[in-house]
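Reply to dn_fold:

You asked what the input looked like. This is it:
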Amino acid sequence: MGKSISFGSRARRDHPLSSDHHFIIVSDDFKDEPCPCRGVALYNYWTAEHPVEALRYTVKEFERKSRHICIVREALRKGIEIELARDKRPS
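and this is what came back:
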């Protein structure tokens, strides 16, 4: 895994009680997966009460998008980067 950024009202801590969680997940593990299928397993493991929305990019896609006016650049500017550990479960 590469990195993750929490963004939006939950990252700013000004969210309404029903607000969902927003993340950008950056990993070259996504490079062989078509965009709609990327990281779908995340939704199977999400156990928080409120929904999650995750944007998933390869490192190259993320770098390209971060140079444009879009949600990625805004998340970099105002979001909170979350350090991720590699999955240590046996294959």
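Residues 3-83 form a domain with the Beta Polymerase; domain 2 fold (CATH 3.30.460).
Hope that clears it up.
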